[in-house]
């Protein structure tokens, strides 16, 4: 885990803006994600979308991945995740989904009140592979 670069902080701000589109009436915990494709395309945004049947909720990070893959993008350099909390790292399920498309991508998130950056391989060191 290290201090983010200026580019990574810009990505984090994009994630913060995406959180404004979250649909989180049950948890009141809006989350935003900004997924940076390799090669400099604009980040693809995601927000959590909840449901009255709680288990159908979909996290911000996975929504960003699914939107990006649907748009034809499959290689990612970084993802930023924002929630209005002291610590808001991506959940385990999202780490596994992210690893499918970039096990070494950089993850930018809030930890202990600070925005930090870490390679996904540090957050998910022994991912499932078929
Ligand atoms: N959530 C995310 O969007 N990403 C995560 O990595 C963890 C949790 C959402 C799911 C739910 O809508 C809310 O945060 C509270 O768990």
Helix content: 25-40%
- Main-sheet strand order equals 2-1-3-4-5
Low-confidence blocks of residues = none
Mean pLDDT: 97
Radius of gyration: 13 Å
**Any idea how many domains?**
1
Number of helices: 4
CATH topology: Cytidine Deaminase, domain 2
Quaternary organisation: single chain
- What ligands are attached or bound here? tetrahydrodeoxyuridine
Series of secondary-structure elements, N-terminal to C-terminal = HEEHEHEEH
Task: Please indicate the percent range of residues in DSSP E strands (runs of 2 or more).
Answer: 15-25%
Largest sheet: 5 strands, mixed
The CATH architecture comes to: 3-Layer(aba) Sandwich
Count the beta strands: 5
Spell out the CATH superfamily.
Cytidine Deaminase, domain 2
**CA-CA gap between termini:** 28 Å
- What is the overall shape? globular
Care to describe what's here?
The protein has a single domain (6-123), classed as Cytidine Deaminase, domain 2 (3-Layer(aba) Sandwich). The chain has a five-stranded mixed beta sheet. It is α+β, with helices and mostly antiparallel strands and 130 residues long. It is built from four helices and five strands; from the N terminus they run αββαβαββα. The protein has helices at residues 6-18, 60-70, 92-100, 120-123; strands at 31-37, 44-47, 76-83, 106-111, 114-119. The structure holds tetrahydrodeoxyuridine. Tetrahydrodeoxyuridine is lined by residues 24, 27, 29, 31, 48, 50, 57, 59-61, 90-91, 94.
